[in-house]
């Protein structure tokens, strides 16, 4: 018998008695952790193994592959991706086809024919590798589609959450499931203008490097970051978002608080459009408070700053510059240094401001009132 005929007969004989090969393969695969945990039902493993060996034995023999078998590799790749089997574990299982096949072939061959068998080892290996590549490619394509679908679902659910001032428990649970976090998790929430969205995403990538759950949502004029957080407030937050012009909302104690925190973060962005780094409520309380006074803002400005209308434009500007500078540092000497003038000039301007408005900015309570009025005051033309 010629070598080719002998080889074809050997493969046909193995196809006719493939049950033992299937049993051996399934037994070995079930020792791999995800299969051991039942990620793939045993009956599915058996069916796929039977079709796999039928396909491989035909390919190795150079025989036609029926249409029913042509898609078995890609089908397995798609199925395992949907079941969440890690790719490395899947490839470990698939490459086990070679070991099981080669072992079965050796058992079928008499010792005197073993040299003939060795001549065909490359045929078996190449067929299994080609099959493995089919499965890997289909797995990766399916995994990418699933990731896109999950991202789309997360985006939709988070958008609904951000637009719900009082989200109900079911909505919160759906978002928690999509993000893979607990409904009561501590969450960092920040917002940036859309033009700074890329910087916010870079910060998100850094936050995610340690396995932290992070989601960035494009929302109209803003990008909103939501991240699982356990680092406390204040300095740790500013360090995590260093260099990103953004507003940081209060730490959300659970997903239900995210909408309010995100709203405040967006308000901070609007209140401090020229910010060069992360800003919190403490940084923006004046403009935020002023914006919330609504129709009372005009009356506050007139009541506190009305007397300034009697000052010439140049004096008006210098008085306000001095008042703002003093409110920032609280030191006459420091103001004089910053504005390049004498201490007495600073004192004279502060007294003049008091004469015109009746407000003494060296008194903390009155200084706060003046600053609030200034935040409500439209720019002087």
Quick tags:
Globin-like; Arc Repressor Mutant, subunit A; 3 domains; 6-stranded mixed sheet; rod-shaped
Q: Which secondary structure elements does this structure contain, and how are they paired or packed?
A:
Blueprint: H1 3-16, H2 19-29, H3 33-36, H4 42-61, H5 67-70, H6 72-82, H7 87-108, H8 114-118, H9 121-162, H10 169-179, E1 186-193, H11 197-208, E2 214-219, E3 222-228, H12 235-240, E4 246-248, E5 252-253, H13 258-271, E6 278-279, H14 281-292, H15 297-305, H16 313-329, H17 332-339, H18 343-357, H19 364-376
Helix pairs in contact: 1-4, 2-4, 2-7, 6-9, 7-9, 9-10, 13-14, 14-19, 15-19, 16-17, 16-18, 17-18
Question: In words, what does this structure look like?
Answer:
The chain is of the alpha+beta class. The chain folds into three domains: 3-146, Orthogonal Bundle (Globin-like); 169-280, no CATH class; 294-376, Arc Repressor Mutant, subunit A (Orthogonal Bundle), CATH 1.10.10.2840. The chain has 19 helices and six strands. A hairpin with a 2-residue loop joins strand 2 (214-219) and strand 3 (222-228). Helix 1 runs antiparallel to helix 4 (42-61), helix 2 (19-29) packs antiparallel against helix 7 and helix 7 packs antiparallel against helix 9 (121-162).
- What is the straight-line distance between the termini? 105 Å
- Evaluate the radius of gyration: 36 Å
Text of the CATH class of the largest domain: Mainly Alpha
Q: pLDDT average, as an integer?
A: 89
CATH architecture of the largest domain: Orthogonal Bundle
CATH topology of the largest domain: Globin-like
Structural class: alpha+beta
């Amino acid at each position: 018998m010629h070598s080719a005929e002998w080889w074809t007969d050997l493969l046909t004989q193995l196809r006719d008695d493939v049950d033992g090969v299937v049993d051996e393969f399934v037994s070995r695969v079930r020792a791999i952790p995800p299969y051991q945990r039942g990620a793939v039902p045993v009956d599915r493993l058996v069916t796929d193994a039977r079709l796999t060996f039928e396909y491989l034995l035909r390919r190795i023999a150079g025989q036609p592959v029926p249409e029913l078998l042509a898609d078995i590799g890609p089908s397995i790749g798609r199925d395992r991706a949907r079941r969440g089997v890690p790719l490395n574990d899947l490839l470990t299982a698939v490459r086990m086809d070679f070991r099981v096949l080669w072992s079965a072939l050796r058992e079928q061959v008499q010792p005197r024919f073993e040299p003939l068998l060795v001549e065909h080892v490359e045929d078996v290996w190449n067929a299994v590798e080609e099959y493995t590549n089919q499965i890997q490619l289909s797995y990766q394509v399916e995994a990418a589609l699933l990731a896109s679908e999950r991202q789309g679902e997360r985006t939709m659910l988070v958008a609904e959450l951000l637009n719900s001032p009082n989200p109900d428990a079911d909505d919160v649970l759906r978002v928690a499931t999509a993000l893979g976090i607990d409904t009561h998790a501590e969450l960092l929430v920040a917002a940036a203008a859309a033009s700074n969205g890329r910087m916010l995403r870079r910060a998100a990538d850094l936050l995610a490097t340690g396995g932290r759950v992070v989601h960035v949502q494009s929302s109209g004029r803003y990008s909103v970051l939501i991240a699982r957080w356990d680092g406390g407030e204040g300095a740790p937050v500013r360090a995590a978002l260093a260099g990103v012009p953004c507003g940081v909302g209060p730490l959300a104690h659970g997903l239900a608080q995210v909408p309010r925190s995100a709203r405040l973060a967006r308000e901070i962005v609007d209140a401090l459009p020229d910010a060069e780094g992360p800003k919190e409520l403490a940084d923006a309380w004046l403009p935020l408070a002023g914006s919330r006074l609504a129709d009372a803002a005009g009356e506050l400005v007139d009541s506190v700053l009305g007397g300034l209308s009697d000052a010439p434009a140049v004096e008006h500007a210098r008085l306000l510059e001095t008042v703002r500078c003093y409110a920032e540092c609280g030191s006459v000497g420091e103001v004089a240094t910053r504005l390049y003038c004498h201490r007495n000039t600073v004192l004279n301007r502060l007294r003049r401001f008091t004469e015109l408005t009746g407000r003494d900015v060296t008194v903390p309570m009155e200084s706060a009132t003046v600053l609030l009025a200034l935040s409500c005051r439209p720019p002087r033309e």
